[in-house]
Write a structure and sequence with these properties.
4 helices; single chain; mainly alpha
Length: 101
C-alpha cells in the first residue's frame, strides 16, 4: 500500500473525529516508510469541514506530537458535546413521561 491510499479515506458525515482518526491511523500504519509530513498533509485534505479541519488549515501542526495533542483536544470537546446532547435528550424524554398530555 502507498501513501495514495490515504487520499481515498474520507471522514463521513456524522462520523466522530475519534472514529475517523482511528481508521486513518490504521491505514497510515499499513504504509511502509510513510513520512509523518505526508500523513499530516493528506489528513488536512480528507477531514470533513469543521473546527478541527479549520484549525489545521489556519495553523498546520509543527510535528506529529503537535498533531496528536491538537486532535486529542478536539476529540475531548466533541465527546463532551455528544455527552451533553445525550443528557439533554434523556432529560426531555424523562419530562415527557412524567407529564402526560
Amino acid at each position: 500500500m502507498t501513501s495514495v491510499a490515504l487520499v481515498n479515506i474520507r471522514q463521513e458525515k456524522g462520523e466522530s473525529l475519534k472514529s475517523f482518526m482511528t481508521r486513518f491511523g490504521q491505514v497510515a500504519l499499513g504504509i511502509r516508510g510513510l513520512l509523518p509530513e505526508v500523513a499530516m498533509a493528506y489528513l488536512i485534505t480528507v477531514l470533513r469541514l469543521g473546527p478541527f479541519a479549520n484549525s489545521l488549515a489556519m495553523q498546520p501542526p509543527a510535528n506529529m506530537d503537535d498533531l496528536r495533542r491538537r486532535v486529542t483536544q478536539f476529540m475531548q470537546v466533541e465527546e463532551l458535546r455528544q455527552y451533553t446532547r445525550d443528557e439533554q435528550g434523556q432529560g426531555r424524554r424523562g419530562d415527557r413521561s412524567s407529564n402526560p398530555p
